[in-house]
Design brief:
Number of helices: 20
Number of strands: 10
Structural class: alpha+beta
Strand order of the largest sheet: 2-1-5-4-3
Largest sheet: 5 strands, antiparallel
CATH topology of the largest domain: Beta-Lactamase
Radius of gyration: 40 Å
Order of helices and strands: HHHEEHHEEEHHEEHHEHEEHHHHHHHHHH
Helix content: 40-55%
CATH superfamily of the largest domain: GAF domain
Shape: elongated
Bound molecules: fe (ii) ion
Distance between the termini: 116 Å
Amino acid sequence: MENRDLIKLFDSIRKNKGLIKVPQSLQKNKILYDVIRSYQLDCFERASNEFLNFESNSDKIEKDIFFKNSCKLLRIFFPDSIFYYYKRNEETGGYELFFSEVQNNEIITSIEEALVEGILELVSSSQEIRSFENIYYLEKKTYLTPFPLILNNEKIGIFIAICEKKASINIDILFIFERLMQILATNINAIQLNDQLTKKKNTLSLFIDVTENISYIKTIDENIKGIILALQKAINCNLTGIILVDKNGQLFFKYVSKDLYNYIIKHKWSFGKDIFSECIEKNISFNITDMHKSRLYSKTFTIVSDQLKSFLVYPLKAVNFVGCFFAGRLINEPSLGHEEYDIVMTMIKNLSIFLNNIALYDEIKINYELTTAALASAIEAKDPYTKGHSQRVMRYSLLIGKNFGLNESALRTIRLAAMLHDIGKIGIPEAIILKRGPLNEYEYKIMKKHPYIGYTIIKNIKYLSAGFPFVLYHHEKLNGSGYPFGLKSEKIPLFARIAAVADSFDALTSDRPYRKGLSFADAILEMQKYSGIYFDKQLVDILIKTLKS
Ligand SMILES: [Fe+2]
């Protein structure tokens, strides 16, 4: 071959993106032939890369664009064909439609029949591209040709070409075709990895959401439900439930989604020999892909209808609780797999950590309350006449607070603050505290310092911070005649207005060394007399109404 012809050949290869027939005669010169082949491949790869427009580094892969362009590339070899891509499911070994150029249900049904019958599998089982055959399968003289995609010796999917004419591969460019399949396989694998990564990212952000949404202000039930709902979303499964049993074996919490409940037949949640008991007692999980074939069928199906197919049961262990989470999918849905199992595992661990924290939190709360009680007893040791006063003020304040509609957290603050509201008295001289008669002006002036002294004693105790107003302002009066600041009406915080009502009512009804306490009826009259002047009218009314009932 002359140099001029050779240049023409190279030029033609470039223009045709490698897809031309190389003259047989050139095969005699092996070196030249190899150079031409390698140039053909380069030209083709360059063209392919432009076509596929695929950047594996990009965060978001335009899957559809990739597949559409892959089909265009394949059409260079198979003009007039349309393509379907089936992804191999690693777990089941079957194929799932992942991309179709045209949505033709008739064709899809035919392809899937062929896949089920194993015809395509048979043809495409060899990794040799040369083994491809055209299969006259569909009616109306339509041909179906499979292209297996192999990556690291594993089949990851099949491109299927549908055309009316019998397609054939030009032997001369088979090596290019082999390369094309490699490129597609690598890129499809990257797409799938990217999909998995995106899913993992979504799951991760869900975990973060859940963790951030856990709140110690909400009830345990609300928190558990929040976690379960997030978990449902993460595994895309509405049929879920959870059972939690406390230390004494008592059912503490149970939740079964409404959808799952429809598939459960008369189950009383007594822990007999069922799958849940086995999971909890032995601390083992079950991930049953087909319950109908499982040895646990009889155990589980006493409670579950035939509609359920896959069922996952995962144990939970925390300091004060044991239990299990379960999820199911129906016959017509994909089974719960490894991915869902991993998510459930992580989320249930999260839930255990939350439950353990709750246990710790409760313990801390108890310690706080014991510390507060110890502080409170210091006042009573000094002032025996007021023995029981703090406890009673706490009871009255809680009655008012509850009926006023305060939440659990506010009531807890009142409980602690009421116990300590007179703690400042330990800073007042005993001669004044223990005086068996009314105080003179000077003594009263000293006595009036006790709310502020009390505040200075507790001001560095963080867990009491919400209760500071209760202690500091419990002797303030609406008309500004109270102490230590002479605050008026709305300037007095709610906790302090509650404290004033409770404290005054108990002072009126208690015996003093120099006078006898009033009866409840007389004390009520006295409170009503100053209602709206000293005391918040609404709060006085609440106390009186509650005491009368
Ligand atoms: Fe006081």
